[in-house]
Design a protein that fits this description.
Mean pLDDT: 83
Low-confidence stretches: 3-18
Largest sheet: 6 strands, mixed
Helix content: 25-40%
Radius of gyration: 20 Å
Shape: globular
Length: 172
């Protein structure tokens, strides 16, 4: 019986020692703030710097799946001048869940506003200055060598008006 108690105590100490530090949650919030700050400066380098892992996956709000930094970089290059540079964003961390000592899910609300009229290359108007929209993102972070990096992001538009929103709000 003493052996079992000693084994359980040893395991608890090990799991405590490799768990999140008091600083981990703040580090994750700081990374999200960095993403917001850079986005609002039209600087999208965070997709291909140390913020995202080399083999990261990005599922954008339109449902395209980009695998790895090289593919993410190509995708961003295509849409940055048409879409990304045309709006500002405000990120709010809604929840941080530590799934394991080195894995965290960070759920972020994004409130975006179009800063100028948007036209696609064929001349079609895509959006109007002042238009507001909302979205949610789930970032999966992995901690390696004491550094949190994004392994996967799923970004999804949030419907705030129309029939689906009305049906959903009836449950409130």
């Amino acid at each position: 019986m003493k052996t079992i108690k000693l084994l359980i105590f040893s395991l608890l100490i090990c799991f405590t020692a490799v768990g999140q530090s008091a600083d981990d949650e703040q580090q994750l919030k700081d990374i999200i703030q960095k993403l917001e700050n850079q986005w609002n400066k039209d600087d999208f380098s965070f997709f291909t710097d140390e913020t995202y892992m080399p083999d990261a996956i990005l599922i954008n709000p339109l449902g395209a799946v980009w695998n790895g930094q090289a593919e993410i970089e190509k995708g961003i290059a295509v849409v940055k001048d048409i879409i990304l540079k045309n709006f500002s964003t405000k990120y709010t961390v809604k929840n941080i869940r530590f799934m394991a000592p080195s894995v965290a899910l960070v759920i972020v609300h994004a409130a975006d506003q179009t800063e100028r009229d948007v036209y696609f290359p064929d001349g079609t108007k895509g959006d109007t200055k002042g238009h507001k929209r909302e979205g949610m993102a789930i970032h999966t972070f992995v901690k390696q060598n004491d550094v949190w990096r994004i392994a996967c992001t799923q970004a999804t538009p949030v419907i705030t008006d129309g029939p689906i929103a009305k049906i959903a709000s009836k449950g409130d």
